[in-house]
Amino acid sequence: MTAHQLPLETLLHIFSFLSSESLASFASVCRSWQIAVEKITFADIHLNLSTLKRLGDIVRSSGFERCELIKRIHFKVNLPEYSVAARGSYENSYDHRRNNEMFTLSVSSLLKTLSFWPSTDNNSTSLELYSRSPSDWRACEDWAERRTRHQTAIAFPEEELLDKRWEGSYLDLTERIPFTAGCIHSFKIPDHPGYRHFAPSAISEIVSLLPQVENVDMVLHDDEKNDNILRDRLRGELNFRGWPQSLRCLDLSYPGPTPSDDETLDPPPRSAPGKDILSLALHKLSHQLKSITLRSIMIGPELFWPANANQCIPMWPNLTTFVMDYQPATTSGDWLFETDPAWDEKVDEPWSPSETPIFPGRFRTLPNAKLDELYCAAAQAAQRMPRLRCMRLEAGIGRSWIKESFTPPVHTFEYNAMRGQAIWTSSSEYHLADHVRSSWDAVAKSHGHAEVYSESVWFYYYPEDASECSGANILDDRWRKKYGCFSWDDDS
């Protein structure tokens, strides 16, 4: 067998060891080698506005056959550069306008190019979108210069703001985009401290222009600290209006901590009880999904069961997985946790006089009755999820102030539909209220079980790997003994 006759799989394996710079020269050997080289070089491409036209020309020259080779597109929106003097100033309205215009032009040009690509099952492409300015300090490729700018920011903050320069700036579209891209099946907004923030309304509109998208994985930001009106407006504009019916999986990270790090204060209400716009929008969108993951999000019980749900019973016919990591307060201004008087007894070594917690005002770890309302709402929804396999709800409590040597405060809930098992893992004492237990009993019965197995547990020796705290392990006597797992009801 000659080199020209090597199977494609063998060529791909061999070429995978070569650098991208040296790989291109092998494409001219023969047609089979060209196919193998292009499968690798076109699989994962990085683009910006200036390189977009060249890609379009390359794809058109092959009669769009190369579209099927492109599996991942990483598109960077390069914002206008700014002067050294501007590094010490916050972005103003002129900067916002320039950035938004460039953002709109870049996204519109990208979608225009992709609109000509065929939309077939063979052409399943993922799109990742991010943005920064070449003048941003994290965009600087010279590490010595980046270190110098960081040191300048410490010594002379009036001269160098670093990422703070664009605090309160959210890239938005200045006009509607008239193009759609049916070739995109997955869309992602990555998480990176140096990437600019997008207005949720802009991202929502972009997703609506991807008529065949099945998976959306995005990190947005609900942590605006200087302008609560802007924060609430941005949140309200994440409405999922016009999102395609093809969507099946949503992974949304939307960090929305309470504006104050002092938990002695009541969180400011962001909506009337049961009226949170984002919770209601997510509730509606979730009906078409197979999987939903929500991270660091602030929600209300209406996410699962709105006030008018009994008038028109909702259904989740295809949902198999519901995972949520939520903030310890609701959007209507209610804490879900209280002070745990017993918490100090669980800490082996108190803070020394020379140590200060990062956020000493964060202390709420004891579940209250408002949290039970959330569990009952989740149970009502779970009864209408015939294909549900797993629901996991985890509270974001005490993560920022606790010592690394301490066992962190934890409160999680996990329901396994195959076993009819509902397990609460809580570092603070938690007893199941009768109405919570009966609600999940009804869920288990809807999934073919005589009754639910429910338990609220904690550990004398919390596992280093929290993922070990699964329902299967909790039912294992040897595992329980190893970590000192006990039921709160047994110790009551």
TrEMBL record:
It holds the Pfam family F-box-like. It comes from the Eukaryota. PROSITE patterns: FBOX (PS50181). Gene3D superfamilies: 1.20.1280.50. Residues 1-45 form the F-box domain. InterPro entries: DUF6546, F-box-like_dom_sf, F-box_dom. This is F-box domain-containing protein. It comes from Penicillium brevicompactum.
